[in-house]
Design goal:
Length: 314
């Protein structure tokens, strides 16, 4: 059965200006686009008893939470193609258990942790964050997870470590878009500085809406950097590496003039192909002003003192 709800925000692909539009668009995943009735059904998982986690009241939003039926059907996850309608394909192909994450590079303790080990070692909390895609749409969601710094501390990074590099799975059996978009430099990579990684806002999500992450959100473990454009928030992480070289992300490798390393949200610095002054709320469909650092300047502006010569905003 094909159920399709049209909303103000449900723009035809031609009306939006996505990442990747400079490349040939291809339709892929034949049969994967249909929205099944059981789309958002939560899979029964061993860790489901950990949800919902205690809500952290320190992160207060200026806007309502976007309903799951909207955010769960409008995702960027290029391992399943260039469309926003990848939820059913992600649920079909991405099996979030068993799952392990390797932590390596400039660390005292290299380790490989099963997702269950991570959930046993680090307590979960819920935080409501704004989320702003470089394509100028936005949402607000309740993530469940823990500060990134707590995961990094387990491996005891060495003083020489300057950056943290994250990597997504690269097996096309888990994400058929990897094969179909064969000219993309897979796997999806992203990176941050050690100082950014240690900031309390930098979050690892294992859940959303009070339950384990549905596949399309980047199950079973993804990064959330709410003051940066969404492409920095890498999904379905399999490797975390400490390094002294600045990591080059997948988007930066494709088009560094449009998607740089820093990618901090700034309404006054346009993308080369569109303005960043406003964004379309997925909640209401309205255009609303974009906030500097997506509204998180108080927590993160200090990270960029002395870096004014860097391309901090793209
Ligand atoms: N592995 C991987 N991570 C990814 C992406 C992707 O294509 N692959 N897309 C990014 C982009 S562009 C955005 S805006 C967010 C979207 O997250 P959401 O679908 O949970 O809203 O995920 C980011 N993380
Ligand atoms: Mo994005």
């Amino acid at each position: 059965m094909l159920i399709k709800h049209r909303r103000a925000w449900d723009m035809p692909e031609s009306a939006i200006t996505p990442e990747g539009v400079f490349l040939n668009r291809r339709s892929l995943l034949a049969g994967g686009a249909a929205l099944g009735a059981g789309l958002l059904a939560t899979r029964a998982r061993a860790d489901a008893s950990l949800y919902p986690a205690k809500h952290n009241d320190n992160f207060v939003l200026d806007r309502p939470i976007t309903p799951e039926k909207i955010t769960g059907n409008y995702n960027n996850f290029y391992e399943y193609g260039t469309s926003k309608r990848i939820a059913s394909a992600a649920q079909q192909y991405l099996k979030p258990a068993p799952w392990s994450v390797k932590i390596d590079g400039l660390v005292a303790k290299e380790m490989t942790l099963d997702i269950e080990d991570i959930l046993k070692k680090i307590p979960l909390e819920e935080r409501a964050y704004r989320h702003r895609c470089v394509e100028a749409w936005s949402m607000a969601v309740p993530w469940t997870g823990f500060p990134l710094a707590k995961l990094l501390a387990l491996a005891e990074p060495k003083p020489e470590a300057k950056y943290v590099r994250f990597e997504t799975f690269s097996d096309p059996k888990l994400g058929p878009g990897i094969q179909q978009l064969s000219y993309y430099p897979w796997p999806y990579i992203e990176g941050v500085t050690m100082a950014e990684a240690q900031n309390d806002l930098a979050f690892i999500a294992t859940g959303i809406y009070g339950k384990p992450l549905p596949s399309q959100f980047g199950a079973p473990i993804r990064l959330v950097l709410p003051w940066k454009y969404g492409f920095k928030s890498i999904k379905s992480i399999v490797k975390v590496s400490f390094t002294d070289k600045r990591p080059v992300g997948l988007w930066e490798a494709l088009q560094d003039s449009e998607y740089g390393f820093w990618a901090n949200v700034n309404p006054e610095v346009p993308h080369p192909r569109w303005s960043q002054a406003t964004e379309q709320s997925l909640t209401t469909g309205d255009r609303v002003p974009t906030l500097l650092f997506n509204g998180y300047g108080e927590q993160v502006a200090g990270l960029y003192k002395g870096l004014e010569k860097e391309k901090l905003w793209a």
